[in-house]
Design brief:
This protein is an alpha+beta fold and 181 residues long. It has one domain: 3-Layer(aba) Sandwich (Aminopeptidase). The protein is built from 4 helices and 8 strands. An 8-stranded mixed sheet has the order 1-2-3-4-5-6-8-7, with helices on both faces. β3 and β4 form a beta hairpin. α1 packs across α2. It is globular, with a radius of gyration of 16 Å.
Length: 181
């Protein structure tokens, strides 16, 4: 897991920098992706508290979670977690995206993310996805990207199709997608 100044990491400690430090911020004309930091824990927690994003059965927030404990738990499960911000308003967190479940043997990694509803349909997540996948190819040597969606999540299904993912399996209400990069 890469470590950055003030980046949240599972041990809760602060790190100075590492070899991937030069890529802590990913950006393009539409979005700025900043690695999740301690200062982001509260807005990150609020993002996942939004009832329009998750119903009670799928919300990753657990009883007793605080913003910091939730953020630490999510970071512990991921290779990288970024907050999504508009390039025109880089101080406001409007979503997140992450790389997780790195399979070095098959050069495969999973992509996931969330975006506040008022920003849906504006091309923000595709912009974030493109930046993250370029990072994953360069830093990890990724050959394929995996994603999972609920069978009823039409926005996520449209996103997966638009980004070139191919449906692999459907099981227990989830669709497993793969994209060769």
């Amino acid at each position: 897991m890469a470590l950055f100044i003030n980046r949240i990491k599972p041990s809760g400690n602060i790190a100075e920098k590492d070899s991937i430090g030069k890529t802590a911020v990913l950006s393009n004309s539409k979005v700025v992706l900043n690695v999740l930091t301690y200062a982001d824990a509260e807005p990150f927690f609020r993002l996942y508290s939004n009832p329009e994003l998750y119903d009670a059965d799928e919300c990753p927030i657990q009883s007793g979670d605080t913003p910091e404990s939730f953020s630490l738990r999510i970071v512990a499960r991921c290779e990288m977690v970024w907050t999504i911000r508009l390039a025109t308003c880089p101080d406001a967190i409007i979503g997140d995206c992450a790389l997780h479940h790195w399979d070095s043997e098959n050069a495969e990694i999973e992509f996931g993310g969330s975006l506040l509803p008022e920003f849906w349909g504006q091309g923000i997540m595709p912009s974030a996805f493109q930046s993250v996948i370029a990072f994953a190819k360069e830093e990890y040597g990724v050959k394929s990207v995996v994603s999972h969606t609920l069978t009823g999540n039409q926005k996520a299904i449209r996103f997966a199709n638009k980004m070139g993912f191919k449906q692999v399996t459907v099981s227990d209400g989830h669709i497993h997608w793969v994209k060769i990069v």
